[in-house]
Amino acid sequence: MFPLDYHALLPEIILATTVLVMLVVDLTTRKKHFVALTAMVGLFAAFVPVLTLAFCDTLEFCAAAGVDRVLFGGSYVVDGYALVFKGLFIFAAFIALLLSIGYLETDRFYEGEYYFLLIVSALGAVVMASSRDFITMIVALELVSGPAFLLAGWRKGDPRSNEAALKFFITGVIALALLLFGVSLLYGLTGTMQFDQMALASVAVAELPLFTLGVIFVLLGFGFKVSAVPFHFWTPDTYEGAPKPVTAWIAVGSKAAGFVGLLTVAYLAFPGVTEVWGPVMWVVAVLSMTIGNIVAIKQTNVIRLLGYSSIAQAGFMLAPFGAAAASGADSLGQVFSATVTYLIIFVVMNLGAFAVVITIGSRVGSYELEDWAGLLRYAPGLATVLAVFFMSLAGIPPLAGWFAKFAVFQATIGVGNWWGYSIAIVAALNAVIAFVYYSKVLKPAFFDPVPKGADLEMLDAGEIPAPIGFALGLTVFGVIVLGVFPGVAANLGQYSAQVVAAIGG
Amino acid sequence: MDWFENGWGLSLIVFLPVIGAAVVMAIPKAKESAIKWTALIFSLVTLALAVMLAVQFDYSAAGTYQFGTAMDTSWINAINAHFHIAVDGISLPMVVLATLITVLVIVYSWNHWPEPHNPKLLLVFVLILATGMTGTFVALDLVLFFVFFEVVLLPMYFMIGIWGDRAIREIPVVKWKIEMRLYASLKFFIFTLFGSVFMLLGFLALYFKSEEALGYRSFSMIELSTIGAAGAFTGTFAFLVFAGLFIGFAVKVPMWPFHTWLPDAHTAAPTIGSVILAAVLLKMGTYAFIRIAIPILPEQAVAWAPFIGVLAVIGIIYGSLACLAQTDIKRLIAYSSVGHMGFVMLGIATLTDIGINAAVIGMVAHGLITGLLFFIAGSMAHRYHTRDMNRLGGNMMLMPKMGVLLGFAAMASLGLPSLAGFWGEFMALMSAFNPLAAIGATPLFRGFMVVGAIGTVLTASYMLYMLRSVNFGEASDEWADTEFADVDIFEWMAWAPLVIGTIAIGVYPKIVFGATNGAVVALLEKAFGG
After folding, report:
1. How far apart are CA B63 and CA B522, in angstroms?
2. Residue with the larger pLDDT of the pair A504 and A352
3. Is the pLDDT of residue B111 over 90?
4. ipTM
5. CA atoms within 13 A on the CB side of A147
6. Quick one: which of A112, A307, A312, B373 could link to A236 by a disulfide (CB 3.0–4.6 Å)?
7. Are B201 and A413 within 8 A, CB to CB?
């Protein structure tokens, strides 16, 4: 048996304990916000070992141990890349939790179970970041998705919520089936499930059509998870129907987990055969960016608009993958770090965008953009925050989004071949198109007068619940700091990319 | 005064306005006078610092960067981007202009709030704009430049969209009817964003290519221009990069045929928005040509010069002819900017010291004069409630002081000698007689000179046409019973510096040349070997 490195596993252990404690708390009290409080404490506690692991070299008790954090024979690795994402997922879950607390009070919901499922999903994402073989990864992926399927249908009385859950579930299961099928092909050809061994074995079989098929199936499976075109159809419907805080978690946490899977598989399992998956990703990235953006222009509902925006952003994050085709080993780390950098910024700004949209939506009582007219008059603070997030999404400096796009341009051009140049130009054009629909959100809020007959007293009186206010504050702060000092995100990206450099292409 | 010289002074000039914006945001909306005074004080302190900068500037070494932060202030270390700002003789006048205009705009706003009334938000936007503008003129790192270049977009977008013209306009081709402000704000943003993403791709290409010559990747304008002058960027690569930069800068200038956002944006914007747009934002494009495109890609600058020259003279003629066809006074002034920026670009295209000096003084003069014109047009529209020149007339009788000022500004704009506008036009034409020999298209440029000279005649004719229809003649019956308030105290305070500046530079252009000449000569020597 392997000796267990308990320090490395501490975040998972804490989260797993937390969910159990939450069940107990849920049974013993009628005040359900204690369950949420437990979850919050658990997330905080889980974040501590992530930090101690990250700064292990500078901590006396940790550096002395001198372990390489490779567990279970290489199936589970706690390295810089894993830690960056563990931290990010815990942050995302924390914000989603804050958003949920206010939301669940608006109607009669099962509260305790909701929080339980949310944290389980987060636990899955945390495991995902470390998994380095297909079995662990698929288990982690389903641990993320399973609770999310249930949460999407939480508004039981609403047919839309049911539709959302069903669509999400069916596409999720199809994706899983594709993924498993692809994995079985790859296992048959390479004889291993573990990524580092597959990286060595795959070069020999790269010419086989069956291998290509296996890789493509695996990528398709993840394509559903990250809602890339042409596997995006569920996205707007699910986003619209699910309870909004769940949408935030699906759109950010679960999607980021999908990207972690994609990154791990592409760069750690198949770094030597970029010519197999690079072109596929190129096409998917171009389609996602372009179709996501163009369809988004027509949206009138802000949640659906965010859904399409999220598809387009998936395209942006896939663009570095597309540029990786036929690129040398040195630029692999660079394209890898671009996607990681984008993901970090993506998580902060999209959570913020959902937070502000949820706040305004519940104040106005509608997510249709035309109903948001005149927001600036009665809620200037919220309107400003709305502008901050949507302009960040549009990539306007000095808000964080600019650097996400910048990182993608930089990495794709840096590859130095036409796979990279071409996708950089497509991405550049899409960055312009994107502004059209992001500005569509600002137009009613800032430029239009308050609609006649609107109940101004009611609109004025609305207060932002404390947890949501806290979530907004955190994300606004994050978006501005990451925008003015984008080096933070870039360094985390490079820190993660060491994992690719270690493999050496 | 060490702190002032080693970068802190300049950093304060750039960031004080945005700190001011944060302070203004913290003041409750109801306390209007506190908001106004806060904004004014922050902008005045910034202007005072800029004046101090101009006083302490070492004019004998105008070609070297002064008051800068040390090179090694790393900003984004992962991509070797630095926080590096400094001024030389070319950026100094622009910094002073930008800070001055900010103050004037705030003073003017004191009792001229566009509808919907929201002084707090408007002043926040003005202050953010100020940071973006000065930052663009002092940045010496391409990423930093890009960020400041983009920062100005958002406040201007909101300014046009919120306080802009509510007239309904039909979009050509698709025939949608849409409010002018919505159309213009989006068009302004999309055009500029389109240009700037290609500019950014160009910057990145330079960044990666610089590794061959430097051994590491750099965004530093100084390092890139050093290796650029040594021939690091050549061939198709340089051509494509220049094309990217050209799109970015030419949209901003704007050069014909990228100019179509300008008349819409300037016309739809509220008065102070038009003033800032015309007086400062346009200069960011021409400044970037001088600061970035020419020194880093000298070979391509030479190759593109005839093409840029052609577009410049087309701009001159087109802008002037378009002016003659306008009935909206603001739109006329907007089109006149296209023509004036054509002269600036013609000066730049010659790649000579005279031409680029002409361009910088032309930029400053255009900032002062067109700023004044937009102020006056705004004040008149405020009083007459129309900008239609067919309905105006007899302004000299109705508002004599306003009429005199308008006449003065129009004369300055058409290039009357002894006023600031003269030098830019005259010297641009003069430089076109003898462009840089390396371009090898001297006869062509002499042709430009002739066409440009015709342009000055056209400029005179549309300005006189404007004066005739607005200022002279009898006032129509429409205004017979109306009592008009002539220029008020805030207008005097906002406009007097512009008038004084126009006369001072006109009479004694060395105010500008004293700073620019050394820098321009040094820049050209570095790029083209003297």
Report:
1. 5
2. A352
3. no
4. 0.90
5. 24
6. A307
7. yes
Q: Which domain holds residue A410?
A: 276-505
Rounded Cα distance between B226 and B280, Å, is: 28
Predicted confidence band of residue A65 (pLDDT cuts 50, 70, 90): low
Amino acid at A328: G
**Cα distance between residue B313 and residue B319, in whole Å:** 10
For A70, phi then psi, to 5°, come to: -105, 115
Distance CA B220, CA B151 (A): 20
Write out the two tokens for B334. Answer: 């907007």
Domain count, chain A: 1
Rounded (10°) CA dihedral B143, B149, B155, B157: -120
Residue in B189, B204, B205 nearest the CB of A435? B189
Q: Is A87 left (phi over 0), alpha (psi -120 to 50) or beta?
A: alpha
Crossing angle, helix B119-138 and helix B142-151, to 10 degrees?
160
State how far the Cα of A147 lies from the Cα of A281, in Å rounded to an integer. 29
| Residue A110 one-letter amino acid | Y
Mean pLDDT of chain B: 90
Q: What are phi and psi of A71, to 5 degrees?
A: -110, 160
CA distance B307 to B291: 19
Question: How many Å apart are CA B51 and CA B511, to the nearest integer?
Answer: 13
Between CA B22 and CA B498 the distance in angstroms is: 29
Question: What contacts B336, CB < 8 A, 6 or more positions away?
Answer: B319, B320, B323, B370, B373, B413, B459, B462, B463
Task: Please tell me whether residue A233 adopts helix, strand or coil conformation.
Answer: coil
In chain A, residues with a C-beta closer than 8 Å to the C-beta of B188 are none
pLDDT tens digits, B327-378: 899 999 999 999 999 999 999 999 999 999 999 999 999 999 999 999 999 9
Would you say residue A64 lies in a domain? no
Q: Which domain covers residue B412, as residue numbers?
A: 2-528
pLDDT in tens, B212-236: 888 899 999 999 999 988 888 888 8
DSSP letter assigned to residue B7: I
Alpha-carbon distance values, B266 to B170, B248, B338 (Å) = 17, 19, 11
Dist CA B525 CA B517 (whole Å) = 12
Query: What is the total count of domains within chain B?
Result: 1
Task: Tell me if A1 is assigned to some domain.
Answer: no
In a domain, A376, yes or no: yes
Element housing B81 (H / E): strand B81-82
The number of residues making up chain B comes to 530
Lowest mean pLDDT of A90-104, B61-75, B488-502, name the range.
B61-75
Question: From the centroid of its chain, how far is CA B467?
Answer: 24
Phi-psi region of A192 (alpha: psi -120 to 50; beta: other; left: phi over 0): beta
Question: Among A336, A406, A446, which would you mutate to test the B interface (most chain B Cβ atoms within 10 Å of its Cβ)?
Answer: A406
Question: B178 - beta bridge partners?
Answer: B169
Instruction: Say how far apart CA B365 and CA B347 lie, in whole Å.
Output: 14
Tell me if B161 and A447 make a contact (CB, 8 A cut-off). Answer: yes
- Asked if the C-beta of B79 comes within 8 angstroms of chain A's C-beta atoms, the answer is yes
Of A329-343, B120-134, B293-307, the least confident: A329-343
Diameter over CA atoms, chain A: 72
Report d(CA B247, CA B243) in Å as an integer. Answer: 6
Residue of B147, B158, B197 lying closest to A428 (CB–CB) = B197
Tell me, yes or no, whether A317 lies in a domain. yes
Cα distance between the two ends of chain A: 31
Closest CA to A319 of A273, A284, A366, A371: A284
Closest CA to A171 of A224, A207, A211: A224
> Nearest Cα to B256, choosing from B335, B351, B365?
B335
Query: Which one-letter amino acid corresponds to residue B237?
Result: F
A-facing residues of B in 191-230 (CB < 8 A) are 193-194, 197-198, 200-201, 204-205, 207-208
